């Protein structure tokens, strides 16, 4: 059947939704949701008077089946019983009439019923207002508690991380810049060295106990202090917190503290020290440390530019400049601090070094560690300063870090310089060492058969320059080392095998 809408004919297979009476002709009036209750009652009474029921005849599926059988797709117009039925319908329900108005409204459940169901569902899930308020207060209290204990720590970590990041970036910039700088831009080199070395240098404060004599003097002056304060410098060697300095800086200290370049002040523990070389290793518990790079002191030539960094008179991270004036100096600069002059192998420079610079680094033009500033001539700077070479320092550092001390080999002889009358050879700077005494019958020298008057020339193929050189060679070797010693006895050359023993501790006191 067709329902015309305007000028376009639309086809539908569904029967009319208008309720019909049992005779299939007269429609049953249905009250609209927009009509009043009185209109609905009047419509129902009129239907009862005409003898019409309110039942539907057939289901929607049945109506659709009949519609599909009665209407063929190829026949656009109704025929047969459908045409007669169409003629018997009222004018407003005939299918061949045009329908220009809007379609009849679709009945919906009353608005009041839908609203009531929605309100009931919302009322069922709504929490109790008191419980909701308590939950809100508990959440706010928990957030305030977390902020109280976490925010300060987070802010502090961010601040230190930011500062350490700036220092690390400064260090990397300085190291990278030093690789490309030339001596023609010496001013720029100063800045690069400061950037590369500055973050690795630390300031050391030491509290020492006061002797009874000094304590009595303090009482006379109206003071009653049991400690003395001292200071020095150090340099970070490893990210794990290991710091290298002089032994005399921390000697007899009862409390040692280290101030890092980022401002943190931390307590330091003594890992170990070595009296003959005047070196000590400290350990701090800190992260984000920037270590210095090792240099080769043997490859550094006299006349090369060098920089010293330290805390002279408490002025931390002070940098001074000079040149390397000499190497392999044997002086008595460290004897006043308990060091042995014979073990010293100093590098000399004209870098300005003053009290407080002790333990600080001496670096080359690439910012690498080539020495530890140790001593000066006089009480203040006079143009001559000394540092322990980095190759010696590195050996001592590795031993102290591994065992906490330095165990040296012991030959068991007394040595003297070779006089000119006994010297053989063209090089007067390479003389060897003369044995002037043998200590005990169980010493390595006595067991090997060495005698007084023997001149030791080579140790395992290494030519002996002088007494100090021989002592350093023996000291760098450990207990149980087997040596081939070349010597002359009464002018005749000979070779002797010697097994070293451990150096007695009382010899280093």
User: Uncertain spans, ≥5 residues at pLDDT below 50?
Assistant: 1-14, 52-99, 334-339
Strand content: 25-35%
The side-by-side strand order for the widest beta sheet comes to 7-6-3-4-5-9-8
Pairing-aware structural class of the strands and helices? alpha+beta
Instruction: Please state the average pLDDT score.
Output: 77
Biggest sheet layout: 7 strands, antiparallel
Q: Span between N and C termini?
A: 125 Å
Form type: elongated
β-strand number: 23
Percent helix among the residues? 25-40%
User: What's the Cα radius of gyration?
Assistant: 52 Å
User: How many H/I helices?
Assistant: 11
Description:
The structure is a single chain. The model is unreliable at 1-14, 52-99 and 334-339 (pLDDT under 50). The protein has 509 residues and is of the alpha+beta class. Strands 7-6-3-4-5-9-8 form a 7-stranded antiparallel β-sheet. The protein is elongated. The longest helix has 52 residues, at 129-180. Helix 5 (129-180) packs across helix 6. It has helices at 37-49, 60-70, 81-88, 111-125, 129-180, 186-197, 212-220, 247-250, 390-403, 444-448, 467-475, and strands at 2-5, 8-11, 201-209, 227-236, 242-246, 253-259, 265-267, 269-274, 279-283, 305-310, 318-329, 346-349, 361-363, 369-376, 385-389, 409-410, 413-416, 433-438, 455-459, 462-463, 482-489, 492-499, 501-502.
Task: Please write out the topology.
Elements: E1 2-5, E2 8-11, H1 37-49, H2 60-70, H3 81-88, H4 111-125, H5 129-180, H6 186-197, E3 201-209, H7 212-220, E4 227-236, E5 242-246, H8 247-250, E6 253-259, E7 265-267, E8 269-274, E9 279-283, E10 305-310, E11 318-329, E12 346-349, E13 361-363, E14 369-376, E15 385-389, H9 390-403, E16 409-410, E17 413-416, E18 433-438, H10 444-448, E19 455-459, E20 462-463, H11 467-475, E21 482-489, E22 492-499, E23 501-502
Antiparallel strand pairs: 1-2, 3-4, 3-6, 4-5, 5-9, 6-7, 8-9, 10-11, 10-13, 11-12, 12-15, 13-14, 14-15, 16-23, 17-18, 18-19, 19-20, 19-21, 21-22
């Amino acid at each position: 059947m067709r329902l015309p809408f305007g000028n376009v004919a639309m086809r539908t297979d569904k029967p009319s939704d208008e309720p019909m009476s049992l005779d299939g002709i007269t429609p049953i009036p249905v009250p609209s949701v927009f009509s009043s209750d009185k209109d609905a009652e009047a419509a129902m009474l009129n239907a009862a008077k005409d003898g019409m029921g309110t039942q539907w005849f057939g289901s929607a599926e049945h109506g659709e089946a009949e519609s599909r059988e009665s209407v063929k797709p190829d026949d656009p117009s109704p025929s047969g019983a459908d045409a007669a039925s169409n003629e018997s319908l009222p004018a407003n329900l005939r299918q061949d009439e045009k329908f220009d108005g809007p379609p009849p409204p679709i009945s919906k459940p009353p608005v009041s019923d839908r609203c009531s169901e929605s309100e009931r569902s919302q009322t069922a899930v709504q929490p109790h207002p008191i419980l909701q308020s308590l939950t809100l207060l508990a959440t706010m209290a928990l957030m305030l508690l977390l902020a109280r204990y976490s925010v300060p720590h987070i802010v502090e970590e961010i601040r230190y991380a930011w500062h350490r990041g700036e220092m690390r970036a400064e260090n990397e910039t300085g190291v990278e810049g030093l690789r490309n700088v030339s001596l023609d831009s010496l001013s720029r080199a100063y800045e690069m060295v400061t950037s590369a070395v500055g973050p690795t240098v630390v300031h050391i404060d030491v509290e020492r106990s006061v002797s009874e004599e000094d304590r009595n003097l303090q009482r006379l002056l109206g003071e009653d202090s049991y400690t003395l304060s001292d200071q020095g410098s150090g340099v970070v060697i490893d990210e794990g917190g290991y710091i290298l300095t002089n032994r005399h800086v921390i000697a007899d200290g009862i409390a040692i503290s280290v101030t890092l370049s980022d401002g943190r002040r931390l307590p330091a523990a003594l890992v170990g020290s070595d009296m003959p070389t005047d070196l000590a290793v400290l350990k701090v518990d800190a992260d984000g440390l920037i270590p210095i790079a090792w240099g080769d002191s043997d490859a550094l030539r006299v006349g090369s530019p060098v920089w010293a960094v330290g805390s002279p008179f408490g002025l931390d991270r002070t940098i001074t400049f000079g040149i390397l004036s000499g190497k392999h100096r044997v002086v008595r600069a460290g004897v006043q601090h308990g060091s042995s002059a014979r073990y010293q192998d100093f590098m000399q420079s004209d870098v300005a070094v003053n009290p407080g610079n002790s333990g600080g680094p001496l670096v080359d033009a690439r910012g690498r560690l080539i020495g530890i500033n140790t001593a000066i001539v006089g009480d203040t700077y006079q143009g001559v300063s000394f540092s322990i070479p980095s190759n010696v320092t590195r050996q001592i550092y590795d031993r102290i870090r591994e065992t906490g001390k330095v165990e040296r080999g012991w030959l068991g002889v007394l040595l003297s310089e070779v006089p000119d009358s006994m010297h053989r050879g063209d090089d007067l700077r390479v003389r060897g060492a003369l044995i002037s005494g043998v200590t005990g019958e169980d010493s390595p020298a006595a067991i090997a058969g060495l005698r007084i008057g023997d001149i030791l020339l080579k140790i395992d193929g290494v030519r002996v320059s002088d007494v100090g050189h021989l002592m350093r060679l023996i000291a760098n070797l450990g207990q149980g080392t087997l040596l081939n010693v070349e010597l002359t006895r009464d002018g005749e050359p000979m070779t002797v095998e010697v097994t070293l023993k451990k150096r007695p501790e009382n010899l280093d006191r």
